Amino acid sequence: MSILKSFIVFEGLDGAGTTTQIKNLARYYEFNKREYFITNEPTGNPIGRLVREVLQKKVITTPEALALLYAADRSDHLYNPSYGITRILDEGKIVMSDRYFYSSIAYQSVECSKSLVRTINDFPSPEFLIFIDTPVEDCMKRIEKRGEEKELFDRAEFLTKVRENYLEELKRLPDGVNLLVVDGRMSIEDTEAEIRRYLSSFSL
Ligand code: TYD
To answer: Is the pTM of this model over 0.85?
Structure first.
């Protein structure tokens, strides 16, 4: 099992606060003059854009095809010869991603077989995985507050299953993946401080 050094992945349910926390961490690295790159999945690249069209119900397909699209977007995200994460890591930068293959295992396994999802997501692990664990009810409140049109996955029942899948997956991480589970009910500032403390204990 290969581990991508200096690769930090943020995971959580929709509304868990990963986007806020990853931006705050980026600001911290900016302040400390560390070289970093911040990214997210689904990406804004062509395959990722197609994924978003499925989420917005502009394109209708099957759960399996969607799972394959997420995995294709991820493969491109990692290995694209011009903008791939592995290249950026090779340049010595810290790479932070808002979601990675753990999202596929947690979300796509609700509607597809877990073995299929695992098989198509045989990607290297990140050195750091930060899981922001926020109860489904809190996520639902935040999603509603945002007032965005509800996407395919913004449903309480669905998110409950997603959370179970995440928790199960976190128990079987390979050696070399450093996991931090933070309580998403804490204030933004306290969560941010906990994440920084954890990463700085690894000199990141
Ligand atoms: P995200 O961009 O994090 O949500 P938002 O647009 O609200 O910031 O992710 C979009 C949705 O895609 C979200 O519901 C999680 C889901 N998703 C999967 O189901 N599988 C995946 O592999 C990924 C990366 C995301």
So the answer is: yes
Ligand 1 mean position, distance from CA 116 (Å)? 19
User: pLDDT grade, residue 155 (50/70/90)?
Assistant: confident
What ligand 1 atom has the least distance to the C-alpha of 107? 19
Q: From the CA of 37, how far away is ligand 1's center (Å)?
A: 19
Question: Whose C-alpha lies nearest to ligand 1, atom 9?
Answer: 42
| CA 174 to ligand 1 center in whole angstroms | 24
Q: pLDDT grade, residue 1 (50/70/90)? A: low
Identify residue 65 by its one-letter amino acid code.
A
Long-range contacts of 190-196 (CB under 8 A, 24+ apart): 191/17, 191/21, 191/132, 192/21, 192/24, 192/25, 195/21, 195/25, 195/130, 196/25, 196/28
| pLDDT tens per residue, range 39-74 | 999 999 999 999 999 999 999 999 999 999 999 999
Q: Is any ligand 1 atom within 6 A of the Cβ of residue 70? A: yes
77 touches ligand 1 (CB under 6 Å) = no
> DSSP code of 149?
P
Q: How far are the Cα atoms of 49, 72, 190 from residue 121, in angstroms, in the given order?
A: 19, 9, 33
Q: How confident is the model at residue 134 (pLDDT cuts 50, 70, 90)?
A: very high
Residue whose Cα lies nearest atom 23 of ligand 1: it is: 103
